[in-house]
Write a structure and sequence with these properties.
Elements: H1 38-46, H2 48-62, E1 70-76, H3 81-95, E2 100-106, H4 117-135, E3 139-143, H5 169-183, H6 185-188, H7 196-203, E4 212-216, H8 227-232, E5 241-242, E6 256-262, H9 288-299, E7 304-310, E8 314-315, E9 348-349, E10 351-357, H10 360-373, H11 381-384, H12 390-405, H13 413-421
Parallel strand pairs: 1-2, 2-3, 6-7
Antiparallel strand pairs: 4-5, 4-10, 6-10, 8-9
Helix pairs in contact: 1-3, 3-4, 4-12, 10-12
């Protein structure tokens, strides 16, 4: 976006006045006067006037629902809005018992690394946000192109057919929006039998309330090729990238997953010539749904996998950024070579996404715990003066460690990690 533009400049839909509540105590951007600490965000919702306004807006929309499934909460993790989101999810948990609460913790790609005050605030906000948001949510998912949520710098996530500047919110938010729109399709579509709570219950067993998001944007499908043809090329390495700021693991391991593929044509079984065997077990399947399900069982043996195949692609018309490779057609399919003339704008793309309860989350959560354990809280009195007590912070830190242990696989590496990091 041009300098000085805001997210509302790119919003094509009118918003009802009841759908907005502006926090006027803090500036939207700048070096001072920002909502920068978890405790500041929590205290906003502890103000009776603010809480009453938020409840009024919630009740207005809840009363309009014929059948309320639950709530999606999109919340910044890196700043004081993690505290706002924590109190909002607590309010929803108390007011709407039994309804689904799916929370998405968003983090921009940042260049702040090391022990700078801003980076340490980010780290503490993120850890407290994960603990509090997952506590009152049916399911919580960190979502970012950032390579890490911890102190050690990592390169941002890249995609093979997108020329993306991950430091631009315009670019990174477009990719995350396409992933989010696809991930949530199973409980948003009228044609889908699943619900928000059903999705959560398939993934959050054994205390695993945190899940990781994966996405292939765009999914590398070619014109004239079947889904079985495409997936056969990815038997050893799935074509998606991790969007939850965890270090990727080569081993294909997960406890449970929900996978959505969209924008590929539905197809029946291709009959082989008489006496000739199908090219692969995937080619022997009767439908695209069966192809995807068999692929998941092959790549993730022993995992509980649910899958959905949707014909509707992701819409990438303006204001979606045109950062696609010239090797993509207008419909987002791969071409063998770039067109001779100037390529047309990509108007839609196929996409593949997954929500996984995975051992990779142990690395993320335990890594945050280790980074924070090394800090001396007394050096950051300004953070705690905003409303977080030292004792509560230590309890939250232990809760983060306990949460990380839900994703251990019993390979014996965790205790050795702990001993190696002890002072």
């Amino acid at each position: 976006p041009a300098a000085g533009s805001a997210w509302s400049d790119y919003l094509r839909l009118p918003l009802h006045p009841k759908s907005l509540y502006v926090i006027r105590q803090y500036l939207h951007d700048g070096e001072c006067g920002c909502l920068e600490a978890f405790g500041q965000g929590e205290s906003l919702l502890q103000d009776p006037g603010c809480a009453e306004e938020v409840e009024d807006r919630l009740h207005f929309y809840a009363e309009e629902c014929d059948q309320l499934q639950g709530f999606q909460v999109l919340c910044d993790l890196h700043n004081g809005f993690s505290g706002v989101g924590a109190k909002v999810t607590e309010l929803l948990y108390d007011e709407y018992a039994g309804k689904g609460i799916l929370t998405w913790g968003l983090t921009p790609v940042t260049s702040n690394v090391g022990d700078s005050p801003k980076n340490l605030y980010r780290l503490m906000n993120t850890a407290l946000g994960i603990v509090h948001l997952s506590r009152h949510s049916s399911l919580f998912c960190p979502l970012s192109l950032s390579g890490t949520l911890g102190l050690k710098p990592q390169a941002p996530v890249t995609f093979p057919y997108i020329t993306c500047d991950a430091s631009l919110n315009y670019h990174s938010s477009a990719i995350l929006a396409a992933a989010l729109d696809t991930l949530t399709a199973p409980y948003r579509l009228c044609s889908s039998p699943g619900s928000m709570m059903h999705l959560a219950e398939t993934l959050n067993f054994s205390g695993r309330k945190v899940v990781a998001a994966w996405a292939s944007v765009p999914f590398p499908a070619r014109h004239g090729y079947s889904l079985a043809d495409t997936l056969c090329a990815y038997q050893q390495d799935v074509p998606w990238k991790l969007l939850s700021s965890c270090p990727e693991q080569k081993a294909s391991r997960c406890f449970a997953q929900s996978v959505v593929l969209r924008g590929v044509r539905k197809e029946g079984r291709r009959s082989s010539p008489p006496g000739q065997q199908p090219a692969s077990p995937l080619h022997a399947c009767e439908s695209s749904e069966q192809v995807l399900q068999r692929y998941l069982h092959t790549v993730f043996p022993g995992a509980f996998s649910t899958s959905h195949v949707l014909q509707q692609p992701c819409n990438t018309r303006p204001p979606y950024p045109q950062f696609f490779s010239p090797l993509l057609s207008r419909e987002g399919f791969l071409l063998d070579r770039p067109p001779g003339s100037s390529s047309a704008a990509v108007e839609s793309i196929p996409a593949l996404t997954a929500l996984q309860s995975s051992p990779v989350l142990h690395t993320l959560l335990y890594g945050l715990y280790k980074d924070l354990r090394r800090l001396n809280p007394r050096r950051w009195a300004s953070f705690f003066s905003a409303g977080v007590e030292h004792g509560d912070f230590q309890e939250d830190l232990e809760e983060l460690r306990t949460l990380s242990q839900c994703y251990e696989t019993g390979l014996g590496a965790d205790e050795s990690e702990d001993e190696a990091d002890s002072d």
